[in-house]
Amino acid sequence: MSRPHPLDRPAYASLTGPHAxxxxxxxxxxxxxxxVSPFLVVPERPDAADWADVAALAGPxxxxxxxxxxxxxxxxxxxxxxxxxxQLIDNGVTGSVDAEAVRLTAADVPEMMxxxxxxxxxxxxxRTIELGTYLGIRRDxxxxxxxxxxxxxxxxxxxxxxxxxAAYRGQGLATxxxxxxxxxxxxxxxxxxxxxxxxxxxxxRLYESLGFQVRRTATFAAARVPGEVAAA
Length: 232
What we know:
31% strand; Aminopeptidase; acyltransferase activity, transferring groups other than amino-acyl groups; single chain
């Protein structure tokens, strides 16, 4: 049998590869620390023991992501989201380092989280910045755009948290940050990739215009662990 491609299950490939130092395991279930990333990986066809391990690891009442899971959770779990998505991969993006892009640090996290709250690009938590490089652009000292690196399967780096304050959209700031990250990722000998919700056609068209192409579709789902979990 051929080995699966790292991008077929990128969170698992990250947590068993370059991000293994973040991995928290219980049985066949692995996740990032809860303040780093919400990603939690279960087998594609989890059995009752796997679901019990998810519940024990995540905790009662927690909403957990279920990416490309082919079996439904137990009846006692509440499905809270099921969203069609796409995975895009570099197919000739022009990478170029932008002199105005600044490297963000832990000291910038409160401002980064505030920008994420205003723009809703996806989860960004208090320690997400530890996953890779995050870059920003400031205007009058205020952070108005950012983008960074999230999942890191062997040989690949995901560009994520791409966002711009509403008052500064239309100026190409996010594009400049993406191109800078592409240049840095390529300089490490890796390939950039991204994810987007399928309904976000505006973002997909933008990424395709930069030189990304859709590699595959995906389903982004999430379920809530029952409020009370039986002891293992």
